[in-house]
Amino acid sequence: MKLSIIGVGLIGGSIALKLKEKKIVDFVCGIDNSQDNLNEALALNIIDEKADLEDGIKNSDVIIIAIPVDATRKILPKVLDLMSDSQTVMDVGSTKAGIVESVKNHARRSRFVAFHPMWGTENNGPKSAIAESFSGKAGVICNREESAQDAIKMVETIVESLDMHTIFMNAEAHDLHTAYISHISHITSYALANTVLEKEKEEDTIFQLASSGFSSTVRLAKSHPEMWVPIFKQNKENVLDVLNEHISQLKKFKSALEKENFEYLGELIENANKIRGILDK
Amino acid sequence: MKLSIIGVGLIGGSIALKLKEKKIVDFVCGIDNSQDNLNEALALNIIDEKADLEDGIKNSDVIIIAIPVDATRKILPKVLDLMSDSQTVMDVGSTKAGIVESVKNHARRSRFVAFHPMWGTENNGPKSAIAESFSGKAGVICNREESAQDAIKMVETIVESLDMHTIFMNAEAHDLHTAYISHISHITSYALANTVLEKEKEEDTIFQLASSGFSSTVRLAKSHPEMWVPIFKQNKENVLDVLNEHISQLKKFKSALEKENFEYLGELIENANKIRGILDK
């Protein structure tokens, strides 16, 4: 099978590596605005050839779009225009409603499968790509009824080859749940980094004292704006809703401390501890 | 050298394991309110003998107090009362000013070294103890001038044996910095867990979709109130100060989203990205 990757970064690169390793794919074409990324991906054997959009699509059975969600919305209709009815295109974006909406009335809509692998790191670029990244994680397929059965089948094969398990969901539900599970974590982490950078003027002290706890909470704050501004933009309403709730939860801690109500503080923490039972099932 | 550990949990247990492995310590006495903890620590070879406070102190060269910070404040004067001038006691608490204050005028103050290893996990109990825990992390000694030189020397030897590097700081500075670097991370993580538990009623969806990003941000929310309520209590003013700043940082994200000022949102994220340069020095 021949694969084209539009955006040879962390996610696109990791998928290509794994599918080559599993011998599902025997040729990978890379399409990217950045020549540096393409050259790096070639050198790392992530892709076998550079191509422009037209040639890349022509020479592939499956096309994976792995670029920021706003750019995905723009390029997806063009990709469908260039495709035949025997090809499949999937994306990997962290928001789904806007992307699905952008091709709702496209004549070739059924060749597109809206996909989101529940994995990522704060790093980017082909050099960050790791074949084993997705192992054991969930892969969400949205609005399956809008895709052709053979296209869904193709994506399911890819998801299995990535050692992921498939979850089906509609795009609106996906965007709501990811606001809770993923997008708010990033805002929290960014705001925590900004708090520490604002309050702690002694950078060396941050570096010297930073424990594994701090590093893990603030890890996501290293994630790049090129990827995350579009996600927050596309999922604005859900993210704002969860962010408001988060601020009011923080105010409960503030109030408990101010009033020295340490019993209530203990209750807030005990409630938070319930996440253990859910995450460690 | 003979060691007594008051509180054979995660931290006390991990220290004992490492010091035995390094052969700095050849006998460990365990003192704990929980018989279960003591039996577990015996079975895991963390301690060699159970003891009550009086016998444990009598039979040791060094005593390490590894219990919640409010309990440390209470027990420390009693421990000093029972000690001779050739023995050394150290604590491992995450707040230092209150503990140092509690023995300020004690006749045997100089036998105490106020210590804080910058490591911990969300787990507790002897079974969570790991000898390699502290490797490469900072160990903070506070108010060194209030301790006898030989007591400081002894603690430095222990810190080196734990493969940590020593930082000296006064207790007030320590409490301020840990509010930034550690305590606020815990509140953020607790509040994030409570946000998700409040908004996301579909527990199975949390479990299925939770990515590594969410898990790492919310990891600290598993930490127990028995340990953390006393820390927040003892460091109330600093924690409140940082918490207020954190809430106002979150409100900047909220405002940027509400006003659809995505340029500003990008700037906030770019600023947060600076933490990469500080943490990855």
From TrEMBL, chains A, B:
PROSITE patterns: PDH_ADH
One GO MF term attached to the UniProt entry: NAD+ binding
NCBIfam families associated with the record: PRK08507.1
Oxidoreductase found in the keyword field: yes
Protein known as: Prephenate dehydrogenase
Encoding gene per record: tyrA
EC number from the UniProt entry: 1.3.1.12
Top-level EC class: oxidoreductase
Organismal lineage: Bacteria, Pseudomonadati, Bacteroidota, Flavobacteriia, Flavobacteriales
BP terms from Gene Ontology: tyrosine biosynthetic process
Pfam families found in the cross-reference section: PDH_C, PDH_N
SUPFAM superfamilies documented for this protein: 6-phosphogluconate dehydrogenase C-terminal domain-like, NAD(P)-binding Rossmann-fold domains
Domain Prephenate/arogenate dehydrogenase: 1-281
Species this protein is from: Chryseobacterium aquaeductus
Record keywords, A-Z: Oxidoreductase
